Automatic annotation (TrEMBL), chain A:
The name this protein goes by in its record: Branched-chain amino acid ABC transporter permease
Keywords per UniProt: Amino-acid transport, Cell membrane, Membrane, Transmembrane, Transmembrane helix, Transport
Lineage of producing organism: Bacteria, Pseudomonadati, Pseudomonadota, Alphaproteobacteria, Hyphomicrobiales
Membrane-spanning ranges: 12-35, 42-59, 65-85, 92-117, 137-159, 188-213, 225-249, 261-277
Molecular function as annotated in GO: transmembrane transporter activity
TrEMBL record, chain B:
Pfam families: ABC_tran (PF00005), BCA_ABC_TP_C (PF12399)
PROSITE patterns per the UniProt record, alphabetical: ABC_TRANSPORTER_1, ABC_TRANSPORTER_2
Keyword Nucleotide-binding: yes
Residue ranges crossing the lipid bilayer per the database entry: none
Source organism: Chelatococcus reniformis
Alphabetic keyword roster: Amino-acid transport, ATP-binding, Nucleotide-binding, Transport
Official protein name in the record: ABC transporter ATP-binding protein
Any one GO molecular-function label of the UniProt entry: branched-chain amino acid transmembrane transporter activity
């Protein structure tokens, strides 16, 4: 039982990271129609932004986190201006190739800048644990789950209670009508990319202490986030959250109770089953949102 | 108030408007009638800034619109209830309406007067204000599309086929409201295939055929014109 609680918390923490990556993927997809194949590299970049400020830069924790997130926001704006804007009227395939190319570029740039030797990004709660019903749970895992829950709550408020968030949803639902209503469509789309990049940044900073900061970490994250959105329902935010948690939990529990070699089998098996049997995922696509 | 002179608009090789010249004076309601594919929607979209102009000019209040974005044109007071309504399906009625105030409303600013006027004109929208856009009937969606355009504090209202897809009784109801908006003094340019309804509400009209204005005049004259009677009124 104690083992199980510990695994559960670690699984939820990992799942939270996948969920944030999947949320970034989904808000970009719903607003812009772009399937961002660089989403995993966005998270990697978040981790390495933390490596740059905290490890190489030696900044204090708050400054290091803020600096890394500010860099990610800037990166999101750049991505909008340099990749999305020039390609937005091209065929979907061109855009996909564009995001793949940027993903590969990011990975190689990280390799050049940081080398192939992994870094260790320390947690603010390094070495701290709490006892929950006899289980020893790292405080970092709890902090990750809590941070993610708070972010999801803030996102909910943004999309449901603020004019900015409602305008972002309007742009996602009908771009032409949004322009006719006089919404600043360009700024709203740019903000969507910035938000996705910052969420990936938070995911990367939280993941750093759980894994090693490795320039190749983006690919497995992209696969897990992708599986999470398929299982939860492509384009659905609740689906991204549920799917992310499911993938994280099955990965950790599968490694412990089934086999660490096949730990990903459950998540990817579930993804394939969903693709075959229920392609709209658990939550389906909210068709009514898409017009 | 609005002037289009020698306007030419094309989609690639397909020329949709061939040198269209048209005026809408302040306080006037103008109907633009024409069959399916005549270029009516293209004209309204060009006035709103969705389409690029290949030749000619558009002016609003005497100044050129040609280089302005959609957003700037809405700020100047051009509101557009587009063909097919295009209300935001996943937003509530109230969210649809409030969003349309963003061009003039500062963050946190009030919109109570505007929304009260829209609800007075369309009481059904008030009843359904917490419902999502997609769950409305066709007539309600049209009312929301018009109400949403009114929330922008327009000085010129562009209506694209407000009767499209509605049962005759509902179409008449929508036009009865258009008549009320007209009596409030707002300038309106309405595009229609339903010639009877459009000419009944309008002061003047233009007839568009394959991208060219072939006839213009007072609405009463157009109603009597044998060419209009034969081609568009079916008698
Ligand atoms: N997006 C588009 N791409 C290419 N051709 C278009 C497009 N929209 C309209 N057209 C063409 O332009 C012409 C005018 O269309 P439209 O303005 O929609 O007419 P109406 O509103 O009077 O029915 C038609 O021949 C139509 O096929
Ligand atoms: Mg049309």
């Amino acid at each position: 039982m104690a083992d199980f609680i510990q695994l559960l918390m670690n699984g939820l923490a990992l799942g939270s990271v996948y969920a944030l990556a999947a949320i970034g993927f989904v808000i970009v997809y719903s607003a812009t129609g772009v399937v961002n194949f660089a989403a995993g590299q966005f998270v990697m970049l978040g981790t390495f932004a933390g490596v740059a400020t905290l490890v190489n830069g030696g900044w204090s924790l708050p400054a290091g986190y803020l600096g890394a997130l500010a860099a990610m926001a800037l990166f999101g704006a750049l991505f909008y201006a340099v990749v999305y804007l020039p390609l937005r009227n091209s065929p979907a395939v061109t855009m996909i190739i564009g995001t793949v190319a940027i993903g590969i570029t990011l990975q190689n740039a990280a390799l050049l800048g940081f080398g192939s030797w992994p870094f260790r990004l320390v947690s603010p709660f390094e070495g701290m644990t709490v006892d929950i019903a006899g289980a020893v749970v790292p405080v970092h895992a709890i902090a990750v789950v809590v941070t993610t829950a708070v972010l999801i709550g803030l996102l909910w408020l943004l999309f449901n209670r603020t004019t900015l968030g409602i305008a972002m949803r309007a742009v996602a639902q009908d771009l032409v009508a949004a322009r006719l209503m006089g919404l600043k469509v360009g700024a709203l789309l740019a903000f969507t990319w910035i938000l996705a990049a910052v969420l990936a940044g938070v995911a990367g900073l939280m993941l750093g202490p759980m894994w090693f900061a490795d320039v190749n970490m983006g690919d497995p994250i992209a696969l897990k986030a992708f599986a999470a959105t398929i299982i939860g329902g492509f384009g659905s935010l609740p689906g991204a959250i549920a799917g992310g948690l499911f993938v994280g939990l099955t990965e950790v529990l599968g490694a412990a109770y089934v086999s660490s070699a096949y730990k990903d089998l459950i998540a990817f098996g579930a993804m394939i089953l969903f693709l075959l049997l229920r392609p709209q995922g658990v939550f389906g696509e909210r068709i009514q949102d898409r017009g | 108030m609005l002037g289009c002179s020698d306007l030419t608009v094309a989609y690639g090789d397909i020329v949709a408007l061939h040198g269209v010249t048209l005026q809408v004076r302040a306080g006037e309601t103008v109907a633009l009638i024409g069959a399916n594919g005549a270029g009516k929607t293209t004209l309204l979209q060009t006035i709103s800034g969705l389409n690029k102009v290949r030749g000619g000019h558009i002016s609003f209040d005497g100044s050129p619109l040609d280089s302005l974005s959609c957003e700037r044109r809405v700020r100047l007071g051009i509101a557009h209830a587009p063909e097919g309504r295009r209300i935001f399906p996943g937003l509530t009625v109230e969210e649809n309406l409030v969003l349309a105030t963003s061009p003039w409303r500062p963050p946190g600013g009030r919109y109570g007067d505007e929304i009260a006027q829209v609800f007075e004109l369309f009481p059904r929208l008030k009843e359904r204000r917490r419902q999502l856009g997609w769950s409305l009937s066709g007539g309600e969606q049209q009312m929301l599309a018009i109400g949403r355009a009114l929330m922008a504090r327009p000085r010129l209202l562009l209506l694209d086929e407000p009767s499209l897809g509605l049962a005759p009784r509902l179409a008449e109801e929508v036009y009865e409201r258009v008549g009320r908006i007209r009596r409030s003094g707002l300038t309106i340019l309405v595009v229609e295939q339903n010639t009877v309804l459009a000419l009944a509400v309008a002061d003047r009209g233009y007839v568009l055929e394959t991208g060219r204005v072939v006839l213009e005049g007072a609405a009463a004259e157009l109603k009597r014109d044998p060419r209009v009677r034969e081609a568009y009124l079916g008698r």
